[in-house]
């Protein structure tokens, strides 16, 4: 009853009849109990525009599932773009809406580098704080947990929406109209509608739908609106006349209504994905000058990643420029993340040199040791990993930090060593405890 209306209802039969068709929104998904909770409040529906586009297809004409899949692809890229520049279909085409299709497992438009935390403010230091305050739940951790839980709920709702669309594929504009009326704030649904119009070779109607979506989705739904803007930018990159001028018009509009940092990153991602390298370099240079503080670290890291993915050997000049530009308190964050990028898509030896450099300056930073160990463990060279662990556990750190390192070492040996190695780490830990008690 509480989800039927924003107003109080004494008896449901005063509003609805048994068997009556209604419009509802998915508000919760309980996968364990296999239940979906629905809501019919006006506040859930937003300000929908009841506008019917003429169907471009006979409603009775059947379309096979694989035919519909073909309609949702076009050469050159997806509307939402792709954060991973290496993702490509077998036939060389990029799937349209690839980002939206993955929303069941990836937060919508989570604009970050593949291996870089988008929140660069005190990036590595946050891990140190977690290590130092193990077992302590503070306000920041609670807020972070609540935010994560909210994202999980949104992810479940997206997955449910996607399953509904896949189970009942819209075949006409009329059917898409019904879908957007039932889920008016879902960028996933609106972008599917845009893709349908592109499959009908009608870019103008796809633009019209993008504008409708921007006018319909509530301004509080920041991610949903941003998804539409990014899809719109990608659409103009493919169909604009001329493309660059059309892209910049939409980009400038998007900046007025969204977080500029995320909009710039979205445009950069589009340039990289479509191999417009000159425009990408120019935009990166502009972003370096425009943005300051934490986000500037992210931009410099994006530049490093771009160079490494292009297999260029020009990282050091960029690193040197970044260190001259960034405030000193950001240097360790930047160098540690650059080292991780070197391990993952560059030259591991350069990554090792960077970690060794910052550990000489900050030998008691447990978070740096942990990040360094993680990269070596990923590469899997036991002859390198075990000596690095030995160096780490020989440090004179707080008990909580030493416990963290010993547990990490023990976990590694349980996965990769034998009983003798496990017993060795346990003996080392007991010896540390004994020495600590004597001190």
What does this structure look like?
The protein has 439 residues and is an all-alpha fold. Among the domains are: 1-45, no CATH class; 64-275, no CATH class. Helices cover 62% and strands 3% of the residues. The chain has helices at 42-45, 65-71, 98-101, 123-132, 139-167, 173-182, 187-199, 203-216, 222-239, 243-257, 260-273, 277-290, 293-309, 315-325, 331-345, 348-361, 366-379, 382-393, 399-416, 419-438; strands at residues 25-30, 35-39. It has a two-stranded antiparallel ribbon. Strand 1 (25-30) and strand 2 (35-39) form a beta hairpin. Helix 7 (187-199) packs antiparallel against helix 8 (203-216), helix 8 runs antiparallel to helix 9 (222-239) and helix 10 (243-257) runs antiparallel to helix 11 (260-273). The longest helix has 29 residues, at 139-167. It is extended and about 80 Å long. The model is unreliable at 46-77 and 82-138 (pLDDT under 50).
